[in-house]
Amino acid sequence: MIAPEFNAKFGFWSSPITSQIIASKSLSFGDLQIDNSNIYWIESRPNEKGRSVVVSYNQDGTYRDETPEEYSVGTSVHGYGGGALFVRDQQLYFSNAKNGIVYHKDLKSNVIKPLIDLFEGRFADFHADPNHNYLYCIRKDDSKKTQFPPTEIVRICLKSKEIQVIFTGSDFYSSPSISPNGKKISW
To answer: What is the pTM for the complete model shown?
Structure first.
């Protein structure tokens, strides 16, 4: 004898497997970075309301959440996401999706501070110069109240927090990278 629920037409039977169950178990990983033999990535956690966390795997074999629960690391500069963190020499920079502010965490002292105190647009694709004087990145300038806000390559002075536009005028910029001597930029 066939159970009654198996006699239902396609799409009209009830399943014990719901979309909520599937989504709550699906972690995703992105933006992999390596610094001093430690591995860093962004981990999306559906069981924490979709919050994204910077996680590290250290040389001693331990995993650690680098961003506390009040942060959700992410950016919408590029419609597909990505580019929300950068780490070099134990200095972590990330975009907080909750408020659009860029933060800096010194991984040695575990101190997190806003790099930019006010909402100045959306930022992604970070890259620091070799001397850690500037953080180069892509900014979507939302202060211009237009349907398509300008996309720019900017640099943020890590001491004064001043933002300087390096390139603007094109529809799309991605992945700025600074030469080892700090004198050239590619994107």
So the answer is: 0.82
